[in-house]
Design a protein that fits this description.
The complex is a heterodimer of chains A (1086) and B (234). Chain A has 1086 residues and is an alpha+beta fold. In chain A, helix 2 (20-57) packs antiparallel against helix 7 (559-581). The longest helix of chain A is centred in the N-terminal third of the chain and has 156 residues, at 239-394. The radius of gyration of chain A is 64 Å and the shape is rod-shaped. In chain B, the strands form 2 sheets. In chain B, strands 6-7-8-3-9-10 form a 6-stranded mixed sheet, with helices on both faces. Helix content of chain B is 29%, strand content 28%. Chain B is an alpha/beta fold and 234 residues long. The A-B interface holds A 687-692, 708-709, 711-712, 715-716, 719, 986-987, 989-998, 1000, 1078-1079, 1082, 1084-1086 and B 43, 52, 55, 57-58, 77-78, 81-86, 88, 90, 92-94, 96-102, 105, 108-110, 112-114, 136-138, 152, 156, 164-165, 168.
Chain lengths: 1086, 234
């Protein structure tokens, strides 16, 4: 029982006032330590509390339902009836492409339930907070999110033109295609920088806008948001919350299955109906086609026949005509020939005739002459005769004999004459007949010629006529032929058209059938709609934020504790100093008869008051400052309201207790020794520590080399052991903290470069629309091969599985490449420490390092894969590979078949690309997604930069810690140096008296400081390595393995900073040393 | 006669809140070279103050202090340090040896910054500590420690040897021995030695006795024939 007498109490309080600076130094260091510890520890819960409040106020959904086939009104009604549901908000969403500033952005359009936007409606879920502008009042207006995601040029009044990004037109889903932004909002639904993936554009959603629900023209709701009764009152990051949501989730899943069946039936029957309708349509069309074709064919046939007939006719006619023509020609030719013959004959005849004529004429002439002669003769004769006759007649004088003779002569002559006449007549006749004959002959000839000529003319005429006829016939035939040809051509055309038409309609019909059978296939393939019941733990933003808070907590595990220790250390030294200075007082009290306890009480109270008040101050400040600072650092990445800092009783009590306890115990230790002494000894000045030979002196050759003052320094170092240890610890601690801070930064940053540039040697990941066997991959493979921007590629399967060993189970990704040799081009398997390369074999799997460690699995061990709830598939571990992000189990396709008993289907492609710039990747992904076989594209550069950002938030935290490590180091060093000086005041004053210049005096003190600092620093660097490793292992998040290496540069930084701090302290010390008065310090105990 | 040391109306004031304490209220004195001076006075009289000012450890508020022709009252802090370094040897009542250094090292501490130091070992021998040179102060008796302190002061080869109650912490015999040492040094090395004491019994050993009272020189007595200290009994 401590009995505090009145005077003692007075003294205690006066002491505080008198040595206010000491009091304050303890106060300050405790405040600092507590502020750090409590403040940083409280940050995580504060962050979560802030989020919880925000989510509560703005009714963040507890559950989000999505379905492979959307939700219709029946679904909604069923959902509403599930017990435990508070509010239900069916919603629409659709991804669109908007061109902003020449860049195509993927914007998600969400429905805004304008009618529900009054506060008391519990079904207004995922509320928005208006930060600028107003809510939409007319169609064509929308709300957008402020800032980071959208182009900064977007402001109130900007117009956004929406495109569907695929073949379907956007106006099929939305009433308006252009929207004007009328307000900016924040919403708890989107707090981080991640907006999700999309199947259009470059595959990544850039931002979102909200348009009134009425603007959507979609047949079903795309998602349903729900809140659970009673969940809002619970802390969202706590287990109670999850427990409250679980049953509702289960109920929904069950309902989902039921609805799935119903919906499936509905859809199938509707589909079938549609199919049937389509089939009928096609059949009709087919029939129509058939009949029309038949008609056409008939027509064609007719035409064909007609043409054939016509042709035949023509042919016949032609033939006929030709025949007659040719006959005619022949005849004519004949005629000509005959003619020719005739002419020839004629000519011959003519020739003959002419010859004969000539002859004949000659003869005629002669004959004529003869005749003439004859005639003449005759005539003469006649005359004679006549004469005779006359004579006779007249002459009567004749004799009878003369008569008779004359009569005889006359008779003779008459006979002769008659004969001659006759002859002449005959000759004449002959001649004339011969002449006539000749003339006849000539005439005949002539007529013959004439006839010939006539014939000729006739022939010619005939020929001409024939020719004309021929020509006419030809031309007519030609015409007829042409017509015929034309008709033929027409017919051909007609046939062609027909064929074409047939082909087309055939194709169409075939197409139609094909489509039908495709659709049938699709319908067959139609799976039952699947409801996905997602609670907040599957909402990436929520999880992300929670993890961020936990990350702070993880790092806060170790740092603040160290601060605390240092605070205790400083307190110890201060109180020790105080007690030392007050030995005489203590001795006096003892001499007066006060008990040890009462004397000690003064100092204990002093320390307790200082630390208690320091704690309280530290708590007040720490709970406000640190969470706010760290939170605001995170606010750069998360859209959250200002932080709610809670006075965390748990940490408050813990830290205060620690602070007070540690300082009090330290004080006790400080007092204890003094109190054990007798009063007499106490009242005498403290015997200075005896000088001793130090170990170093024994190393004669080293010792004699030392400068005199160096000897002093060396001895001093080892003389004040306690100070020696404290300085080294303090500085070592500071350096260790600095090194850990820098090292942490290195470890974390190196993850990304190691993972995405050393271990993963590909740039692009494509997800296939459907899983396929490798045999069916030819089409897609060809498409990719043709793309010049993509180099080599490999098909892989990635699947989330549960694996375990013994009783430990963890979630990992099963990763099966199509080829175990080819995969080494894409993923580097190696042992992290030995860098030895590993290869994927068929005998077993390769595990990534972290999960192997978590399962405590070594090479050669057997682990199992969970198949369903009970089945365990055993596999052997053949290698453990370096890996930093997520857990993977790599397996060969053969082993997959063996283990799972089925052939493997691949659903991803890894590929190397020729370029990695943003523009290149955007264009490439847009082009690839157009194909339809690939459903999404992502690039390792994108993933790594996302991760980089996430990790980047850690930088702030680390920076804060490094800065404070430095500040603390400064305080420790200052404190210790101060103690150092105060204890050796006399010594320092003496050397001043001896005539040491100020600078020499300082270096007398500094030399020790510097050596201690260097020793402390070296120890600190070593300590830091272990410290760093400890933090890494403790603060590591489950699915990340931090790099375990510290860069050489970090060591340099830590060392340099420590020296800098030390230098600053020494600089400040200089002034203190200068001020030491020789007279005051050396005052004798008069 | 050439005054080696001269104080002319030296004043020293201290301000403690509103109160002004006059430590020295107009001290004037002169000392010749090679003299053995005793400054005596009761506690708080101001003797130490005079010594401190003479030794360059403190500055006067007013007046002049001239040592060997130099007006040290006008010195700045650096000049004073130089003055202390080369011209002054100081011996304290409580020795103020550096605990971490052996006897010889303590002397070396002083000699390594002087212009014409004497040999530390030699001086230690001279003060009779031949056997004890490598001992730490904790291993030496009071008298031995004081001797080391004197050796330290002497080895500097200073112009002045100032001793502030050198025998205050020592017994009668040891004290006497120390005083003898001082006297011998004064005689043999012609060093000006100033000793402060509140023990007037040793006054006969001095050449001059300056009595200080209430911050003023009460009297200055000159001894024509100083007596060797071993012959003085008190």
């Amino acid at each position: 029982m401590v009995i505090m007498k009145n005077a003692l109490i007075k003294d205690a309080f006066r002491e505080i006032r008198r040595t206010l600076s000491k009091f304050l130094s303890i106060f300050a260091i405790v405040a600092l330590g507590v502020a750090f510890f409590a403040g940083i520890k409280a940050t995580c819960p504060d962050m979560k509390i802030t989020a919880d409040k925000y989510f509560d106020e703005y009714r963040l959904m507890d559950i989000k339902l999505v379905s492979t086939m959307g939700f219709n009104e029946d679904d909604i009604n069923t959902i509403k009836k599930v017990p435990g549901i508070n509010g239900v908000l069916p919603a629409y969403s659709i991804d669109t492409i908007v061109n902003v500033d020449k860049e195509d952005l993927v914007i998600k359009v969400l429905s805004l339930p304008v009618d529900k936007m009054n506060n008391t409606d519990e079904s207004y879920i995922n509320r928005v907070k208006l930060v600028e502008g107003r809510y939409p009042e007319k169609p064509g207006e929308c709300l957008a999110e402020k800032g980071k995601m959208l182009n900064p040029g977007i402001a109130i009044g900007s117009k956004l033109k929406l495109n569907s990004g695929e073949s379907k037109d956007i106006s099929e889903s939305l009433k308006n295609t252009e929207y004007t932004i009328v307000g900016f909002i924040e919403t708890p639904y989107y707090i981080s920088f991640e907006r999700g993936t999309s199947s259009i554009g470059n595959g990544k959603v850039n931002s979102f806008i909200l348009v009134p629900k009425e603007d959507f023209k979609m047949p079903v709701y795309t998602e349903v948001f729900l809140t659970v009764k009673g969940a809002r009152e619970l802390f969202t990051y706590g287990d109670n919350y999850n427990e409250a949501v679980k049953p509702v989730k289960k109920a929904l899943e069950d309902k989902g299955k039921v609805r799935a069946d119903i919906r499936y039936e509905e859809i199938i029957s509707e589909a079938n109906k549609k199919l049937q309708d389509s089939r009928n349509e096609i059949k009709e069309a087919e029939n129509k086609q058939k009949s029309e074709l038949k008609k056409a064919e008939e027509k064609l046939q007719d035409a064909k026949i007609k043409i054939a007939n016509g042709e035949k006719e023509l042919q016949d006619k032609e033939r006929e005509t030709n025949k007659s023509l040719s006959d005619g020609e022949a005849k004519i030719a004949d005629g000509y020939k005959k003619l020719q013959d005739g002419y020839a004959q004629y000519n011959l005849q003519l020739e003959n005739f002419n010859a004969a004529k000539t002859q004949a004429e000659k003869e005629f002439l002669s004959a004529d002459e003869k005749i003439n002669a004859a005639e003449k003769q005759i005539s003469e004769q006649e005359t004679q005769l006549n004469g005779m006759k006359q004579i006779l007649a007249t002459n009567q004088n004749l004799s009878e004999a003369e008569r008779a003779e004359l009569e005889a002569k006359v008779k003779a002559y008459d006979e002769q004459l008659a004969v001659a006449k006759q002859q002449l007549e005959t000759s004449k006749t002959q001649l004339s007949s011969k002449k006539t004959e000749l003339a006849e002959g000539e005439a005949k000839l002539i007529s013959g010629k004439q006839a010939l000529d006539n014939n000729k003319k006739q022939l010619q005429d005939q020929e001409t006529k024939l020719q004309a006829n021929k020509i006419k016939a030809e031309s007519e035939f030609e015409k007829a032929h042409n017509k015929l040809e034309a008709s033929k051509v027409e017919l051909q055309q007609g046939i062609k058209d027909f064929e074409k038409g047939k082909k087309e309609s055939d194709e169409k019909i075939a197409d139609g059938y094909q489509k039908l059978s495709d659709a049938e296939e699709e319908v067959k393939k139609l799976e039952k709609p699947l409801w996905y019941v997602l609670d907040r733990n599957m909402h990436i933003e929520f999880v992300d934020y929670g993890k961020a808070a936990e990350r702070v907590d993880a790092i806060a595990q170790v740092f603040p504790v160290f601060f605390f220790l240092i605070a205790a250390l400083v307190c110890l030294t201060t109180m020790t100093r105080m007690v030392d200075e007050q030995r005489i007082y203590i001795g006096t009290l003892k001499a007066l008869g006060y008990s040890k306890m009462s004397i000690a009480a003064k100092y204990m109270v002093y320390a307790m008051l200082a630390s208690a008040s320091g704690s309280i101050f530290g708590l007040v400040v720490g709970f406000q400052v640190f969470p706010t600072v760290i939170y605001n650092a995170y606010r750069i990445m998360y859209t959250m309201p200002p932080v709610i800092t809670e006075f965390n009783i748990h940490y408050a009590l813990l830290s205060t207790a620690c602070a007070v306890l540690s300082t009090t115990i330290a004080t006790w230790f400080a007092c204890y020794k003094e109190l054990m002494e007798t009063p007499a000894i106490l009242m005498r000045p403290k015997a200075p520590r005896a000088g001793k030979r130090i170990f170093l002196e024994r190393i004669k050759f080293l010792w004699t080399r030392l400068n005199f003052t160096h000897k002093v320094t060396a001895r001093n170092l080892f003389r004040y052991k306690k100070r020696f240890i404290m300085t080294i610890l303090g500085i070592g601690g500071c350096t260790a903290l600095l090194l850990s801070g820098f090292g942490l930064k290195d470890s974390i940053i190196s993850i990304v470069s190691k993972q995405y540039y050393e271990l993963y040697n590909y740039q692009m990941i494509m997800s296939l629309e459907k899983e396929i066997y490798i045999e069916n991959s030819k089409n897609i493979a060809n498409e990719i091969s043709k793309e010049s921007r993509i180099g080599s590629y490999i098909f892989v399967k990635e699947q989330s599985i549960e694996i375990g060993k013994g009783d430990k189970e963890k979630i990992a990704f099963l990763y099966v490449p199509e080829d175990t040799k080819k995969v080494e081009d894409f993923i580097t398997f190696r042992n992290r420490i030995s860098k030895e390369k590993l290869s994927l074999k068929d005998e077993g799997v390769i595990l990534t390092e972290k999960i192997a460690k978590m399962l405590q699995a070594k090479v050669g061990d057997e682990i199992y894969i969970k198949d369903g709830d009970a089945k365990k598939l055993k596999v052997k571990v053949t290698g453990i590979t370096e890996n930093y992000l997520s857990h993977y189990m790599y397996m060969s396709p053969k082993l997959y078949e063996k283990v799972y008993g089925k052939k493997i289907k691949f659903q991803q492609i890894l590929a190397k690309t020729s370029d990695t710039s943003d523009a290149f990747q955007d264009k490439l992904s847009i082009d690839i997604l157009k194909g339809g076989d690939i459903s999404s594209v992502s690039f390792t550069s994108g993933i790594s930069s996302d991760f980089q950002e996430m990790i980047g938030s850690l930088n702030y935290v680390i920076l804060v810690l490094i800065a404070s490590a430095g500040a603390l180091a400064f305080v420790v060093l200052y404190n210790l140096t101060n103690v150092n000086v105060t204890e050796r005041l006399r010594e320092i004053a003496t050397i001043k008296v001896l005539g040491f210049y100020d600078r020499e005096v300082s270096s007398y003190v500094y030399r020790e400081n510097i050596i201690l600092t260097i020793i402390g620093m070296v120890i600190g660097l070593v300590l830091g390595i272990f410290f760093h490793k400890f933090i890494i292992v403790t603060a590591e998040i489950d699915y990340i393995m931090f790099g375990r290496d510290i860069k050489a540069l970090s060591f340099l930084y830590a060392a340099i900073l420590t020296m800098v701090f030390s230098g600053v302290v020494n600089f400040v010390m200089y002034f203190t040393l200068r001020k030491i008065g020789m007279v005051e310090s050396l005052k004798s105990m008069d | 006669m050439y005054k080696y040391i001269e104080l002319i109306d030296v004043k020293k004031y201290y301000e403690m809140g509103e109160v002004e304490i006059k430590a020295l209220d107009g001290v004037s004195l002169s000392i010749d070279k090679g003299e053995f001076i005793v400054i005596a006075g009761s506690s708080g009289a101001g003797k130490s103050t005079v010594l401190n000012i003479l030794g360059g450890m403190d500055t006067s508020s007013d007046g002049e202090v001239i040592v060997d022709g130099s007006e040290i009252s006008k010195y700045n802090s650096k000049q004073l340090t130089t003055y202390r370094r080369y011209d002054i040897g100081f011996v304290f009542q409580f020795y103020n040896l550096v605990q971490n250094l052996t006897a010889v090292e303590n002397v070396e501490l002083a000699t390594q910054i002087c212009k014409n130091p004497l040999n530390p070992r030699g001086v230690l021998e001279q003060v009779g500590l031949k056997e004890r040179m490598d001992n730490f102060p904790a291993q030496l008796s009071g008298g031995e420690q004081q001797r080391v302190a004197i050796a330290r002061a002497l080895a500097k080869n200073p112009k002045l040897l100032l001793c502030d109650e050198p025998t205050g912490a020592l017994d009668y015999n040891t004290g006497k021995a120390i005083l003898k040492l001082l006297q011998d040094t004064c005689r043999n090395m012609s060093m000006t030695v100033i000793v402060i004491t509140h023990n007037l019994a040793i006054a006969p050993m001095a050449d001059k006795i300056i009595k200080v009272k209430n911050g003023r020189v009460e009297s200055i007595e000159i001894n024509e024939n100083p007596i060797p200290v071993e012959r003085i009994e008190w």
